[in-house]
Amino acid sequence: MSKYSNPMSRQVESLPELIRSQYEDLEPKARTVLSFQEIFNIQRIVLTGCGDSYAAAMATKHAFEMLTGIPTEVVTALELGRFYCKKHLGIDCRNPLVIAVSNSGTGARVAEAVERARKHGCFVLGVTGNPESLLGVNSDKILKLDIPSFESAPGTRSYMVSVLSLLLLAIRFGEVRLKYTMDQAMAYREDIKRQADALESLLPGMEDTCASVAEQWKDFPCYDFIGAGFDYATAWFGQAKILEATGKFAMHINTEEWFHLNFFARDAREMGTVVVANTTNPAHSRSRELVKYANVLHRPLVVITDGDKEDFGGEEAVYIKVPKTEYPITMPLTHFAPVCLIASYISELIGEKYGRGCEGDWSFAQGGAGVTNSEIIVD
Ligand SMILES: N[C@@H]1[C@@H](O)[C@H](O)[C@@H](COP(=O)(O)O)O[C@@H]1O
């Protein structure tokens, strides 16, 4: 346990056990939630959610496409509820399949999005711990999440479970649609389970490294998170955790766009820069270039990777090792652990309350009111 232990870092420490127990809970549910006919009927998939759930959708979009061959979009709840073109909803017999993720189920925007999607003929699968919620009652089917309660902190366990549930759905869809054999489907699932042990053995070293990063970065005014493909989802999640846990500014950007935009930022020596870059990422060559130029700019630099310094041309950085998996698509399940640790330790070191404690000017957001108390408009 780290010297800066806090509820959020303890959530991270609980992840290996949570992978094991939630796999047992979710694998049978993901196997049975949709019938064969419902799975064969899918022509397009829209993944939606808010906050961490949106990140979980981004983290698994490529898995859905690679495993099932079904075109899959990630659409924010606001876009799906208010902008998404009606003529693309309800096509081809209850398509697209809208998979709406919300552990609480209480956010107004995601409820609005699924109500609209359903009204216009989509098939809605809700992934939620709250079947009685507006999201739940507006879903055709529910993959029920049962996440054992824990000390409250910015979503860490819930994010992992959302990613796990979506990965298991993608594996199941591909299996039923005969994209691969049942043995191959089991190999993907085993790859998920193996990450429990892999993360467990990496955690002690990871905690020490993240604690020392937090000590050096705690007074920085802002942080920059970069990644490509599903590593971008992890980067996105990282900036979210900095905002929630520390209240400081953080930015997320993809690896190419960084060269168009973020590298112009001044005071670079005080900009904690986190690059998420697994070695199998198709954009790896660009991440390597980015690490080099981030050093030219004297950016304090962390690289979260399943590889090491040599994979980045020997460039100086703090390299944080995350599980190497057999199938890259399962990586988002654990690669976010260091960003939670860094955010949680900074929060602890500067004595900041998570979510500003919903006190003072933030009191309007108590109990999630900022996202639940909102007019729902279904067009
Ligand atoms: N600050 C929280 C986020 O941490 C959370 O990710 C989001 C979505 O929550 P849910 O997945 O329950 O819809 O709600 C709030 O905005």
Automatic annotation (TrEMBL):
CDD domains: SIS_GlmS_GlmD_1. PROSITE patterns: SIS. Residues 35-179 form the SIS domain. Keywords: Repeat. This is Glutamine--fructose-6-phosphate aminotransferase [isomerizing]. It is an enzyme of class 2 (transferase). It catalyses: D-fructose 6-phosphate + L-glutamine = D-glucosamine 6-phosphate + L-glutamate. Its EC number is 2.6.1.16.
